[in-house]
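Here we describe the complex-level prediction in full. Unlike the single-chain runs in Section 2.1, the three entities below were treated as one system.
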Amino acid sequence: MILPSQTTPKAAASLPFYDSDLCVKCNICTAACPVSGVTALFPGPKAVGPQMGRYWQPAHPAVDPATTWCSGCGVCSRVCPHGVPVAEMNIVSKAELRPGPRLSLRDWGLSRPAEVARWMRPILPLARIALRSAVLRRLADGLFGLAARAPLPDVAERPLSRTRADLVRREPAPRAADPRPRVAFFHGCSTEDYEPWLGQMTVQVLENLGVEVEIPPQVCCGLPLQSNHAFDAARQRARRNLAGLLPWVERGIPIVGTSTSCTLALKHDYRAVLGLAGAEVDSVSEGTYDLFEYLVHVLLPGLPDLRLQAVPLHVLYHAPCQLRSHRIGSPALQILRAIPDLRLEVSQTECCGVAGTYGLKSERYQVAVEVGRELFVQARTAGVDRVVTDSETCRWWIEGHSGIPSIHPVELLAAALGLPDLRRYGMSRP
Amino acid sequence: MSKSLLVIGAGLAGLFASVLAARRGASVRLIAEGRGGLALSHGCIDLWRDGELRFSLARLDRSHPLRLAGWPALESAFAAFLEIMHEARLPFAGSLDRVWRLPTALGATHITSGAPVSLASGTLDDPEPISIGNLPALRDFSAELVAAGLRSQGVDVRGIVELELPQPRSPRDLYPQEIADLFDDPDYRAQVVSAWKPKLRGVRRLGLPAVLGRDRALEAFASLEQDLGVAPFEIPTLPPSVPGLRIERALRRLAVEAGVDLIEGPSVRGEVDGRSAGKRVSGAVGATAGGPRGYRAHAVLLATGGALHGGWLSFANGEVQEAVFGLPIETSEDREDWAAPTLYQEQPFARLGLRVDARFRPCDRRGRPFFENLFAAGGLVAGSDRTFEGSRQGIDLASAFAAVEAALS
Amino acid sequence: MTTRSTQLLVIGGGATGLGVAWDACLRGLSVTLVEQGDLGQGTSGRYHGLLHSGGRYVLSDPASAADCRRENALLRRLIPHAIEPTGGFFVSTQADSPEYADEWLVACGRLELPVDEIGPATALQREPLLTPRLTRVFEVQDAALDSFDLLHALARGVTQAGGTVLLRHRVSGLVPHGGGLLARIVSHGDESAFQLEAQYVVNAAGPFAGAVAAMAGVRLPLALGKGTMVAMASRLTHTVLNRCKPPHDGDIIVPVGTVCILGTTDVPVRSPTDLAMEAWEIDLLLSEGQVLIPTLRRHRALRAWAGIRALYRPAADRASHPGGDRASSRLGTPEGHPGGDRGATRTLPRAHVLVDHASTDGVPGLVSIIGGKLTTYRKMAEDVVDHVAALSRVKQPCRTASTPLPAAESRHYALDSRPIRLRSASPVDSSIVCECELVSRPDIEDALRQSGSADLDDLRRDLRLGMGPCQGAFCAYRAAAVAARLLSDPPADGGLAAFAQERWRGLRPLAWGRGLRQAEMLRRVQVELLGAASATADDG
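The structure predicted for the assembly as a whole is:
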């Protein structure tokens, strides 16, 4: 049993029950773990999780230092046939290994993508030069531990909430008898600050399908903070999001996101890792959808009605590890399969390696690349035009390492719906 | 309109059923709470403990799953599986009319009707003496135990060859699948060959732990055979067992390629069609990371397993219940008698499961199916202690085949 | 047949026997101890791990409580490495009588037992799984005592002090001989035998004491009470939990190493080998445990086992009062309350009884020691050796209260030491054989070299191999592999079939729900994958 010592007693009381004694030691999780599969530095999720958990005592939380190698990809929890929350246990116990209450400068930056974007924005041209300078990147690697060769996204000049201020609301607009479906778009920092064009495209797609989109009050989902063990700060963000989203959820309006990590945080991590409880947490969890999940389950049951144009591309679809952790399969595939002329291959790789911020850290970079190697090689060998994946960190990472442009599945749907030229939205190559 | 099938459970029965159904044009969705059985298995197709199934079949209880499936279904299922494995570059040696006697990691004899070619060449019916290779880096396989066990059965074991792995010694124990991944790399294999070849002079047949490649096992095995100049064969190790993992990986890939919508992770609750007066099921509801999501289909196939992976649940008060639809499972024994006094006897609990009709639909004692469109296959079906009978994979394949036939007809 | 001689022969290698041997060695006697099995195979190895504070007995058996209090403090100094100072709670719940709690507290005061009342909120913070329906909580000096560590330490002490410890040796004959006794001793391994002349014989054979005495033609009336215990798969509590109520079945939960143990029942049996566990006992332990830990049944019960306590049941004409001669014992007041047929042995005095067969049965030199509890083993041993010393005119006083036992080189059982050892060991050499209990290959090789036996069950007792959640499904093979490499003549299947069957015995009473999954996992790996077969296994 693990009871994290970093939480307050009240939070500890509401933490989920980490039932390590369901583990029968079959090592199925270890066989699926993408990290232990490529490095002997990590003994595997079972070894550092339910196995070490039996040695936990209040006086000495017995955490194996090797737990820091866990990338938090969540494969282990998902494949366990006995319901052991291996990944959650490891995420929490990694926090025990934090050297102190303060984060390093690097981790502080990596866990606050919204703030970092805000500060870079005024000096954007300078920032861009810095980020692209190999010399400065190597310096950053040596000084701060930010991996020199890890691909980093570009900061957008104007965030989504400014370009589409028309959609931003404090509360759902009152609608007397409007039969149109409506959603609250949780864009997350990645779309807001780095890829507002993706947000634009998503709004366009939804509107094209007859959906009204509103942008509710929201802050960073908190997952980067959680991944870097700043649980209290993550909880702060979580509470603000819960408050901001509740008015929509209460009216039965689905919350929809394009970033599979943000939506996972809302659905799962708030409860299972941060230990938040209560009716509003449950309602938001149940009311949150990945974009394609929303399309497949809510908007378009009975897919045949959708008229899709041909998109003659050869693509490799990779389901991000966070999407798999939603436990909804790959809903995007269902729609992609219906696009005429689309040559679709599907990746079997469990994780591309970046796992959020893991691969950006100098000390983890090499392992992260090894984890994703199989995917990069598959993409190159298959000679696909695009790699398609729902998570932004995956897209940047895969594109940077395979050399093949990586796109969100909504971009293919937009093309299939005949929406304006994708190139206007900054896709790198046709 | 093509039929839709919801398969619940991703063990051998569920995966095989999904591939069969998808290739027959059905729209298939496979949902599983986790992964299971294949990682624990030897990767072979066991039909019957003494290999005499064709003769024993008629004497089995009428409700035994093999009897219900019938010989023709078993034949077709077996053939289909071998074909699929061949396609997946995992060729099998298999026959319904002969058995292979293969060595286990303990040096005991395992009788099977179908084995991957890399294992089948270890047949104990070949009188040529064997040597056993020991990999000190692998704790999950002991050449000494293999040799001692085989010798006690009169097998001519010439000796044990110590074979180090070329890489610098790992800072921790390696699991079998991790070593298998190393063998997928041709450069690694070349290093292995130069390290091992000098030690193999005079060795003809060489038993090795089953770690010779995972995704490129066929290639790995063939190249080692050629370059080492011996006739190697694989022996399954402790779990995670690579031969089982190879089958699992291949079936998953083929399923996805055939268009199966594979959903991993949610626990599942069955749903009855409210407009059918209780006669039909409509699908199932998955407990996802967020809210529940419904999955509908024309037919549902339960391949959720038995005792080990939760196809049915058992309680202190002696009740047993099927896990997805809550179907009742009868047990005639008291809870205290579910497990026999020794490990090696037939176990009453292992025979528990759902009674099924001739179309593999769960039914009551009088043979009336609970639902017209609900089917069951694999370990969930009652009537057989598959460990004791040596019938595990045969029942998985035959029942999956028969259930898919019935579901899609 | 060779004949050896010794001053004192101790029969039985449990805590009592070893305690006697240790005490006697320190007083200068030459001592030989024989134990029919391995260390810890008997009752001492089957107990629930509690080092009593005495709190359990303050009302029912104050003399016993006082003994426990003293011995508890002593043992913490004498053998600290076998003791985990967990502390204990006496918990009064809404189902328990408030008057009892008051009386109990007063009785603790009278006996000067250290007690602190702590607030319910504090108690719940320390032990989050404890029932919220508690009314009062008292903290006492209970601790967890690892009997295997204790037995090993005693055996080491005896050997270092010049005594002889013969494991896997049984006594097959015992006859009066020249003022003392002549014993015939047979080795379990090769059945070789020798004779041993002894001036004095202490029969500390526990439930087998009757059989031993019978060899000398002495009738020793014993009441055998079988107690069943259940280990939960993890440490649900880090503090010993007791119900604050009249002591009865199943009202203690003890954290021991990586598990916690629910105990115990009390069922009269006729034979010292009748260790069968019944469903009602398991259900009772779980139900009683649930009163202290309401979520108990959501957790996995790992394994069940039984141990047999022998108590002295004197003949009807020998009333339960202390006699004038030193032959009889101090008989404490009966403990507890009548429990109907089931609790019959529970009403018998639990204090130890020393029977000198010189006066009672005309066999000089033979002394039997029966009963008692592991917490007070040292005191029992002192009483016995005082008696023998007086008979043999040995003047040395008892030194066990002031002589610490030799510590082990490594503390296998201590909870925190195993992960630490793992990390500090050289990675190339420290292959982990038992992943659940973190037992490494060097650990096993050392144990094999010392014992010379490839018996996996012996390794299990020494190292906790196979005592974790997988119950040997994976590690038994690996351990057998290590043994096969090291030893010259290992059994053909490495002893796996027999070991797996032993593990099965403890899983069987819990074979439903998650426990059934574990049992099936064991079967899948051992029987289906490895092909371990019953040709070499014992049945039942």
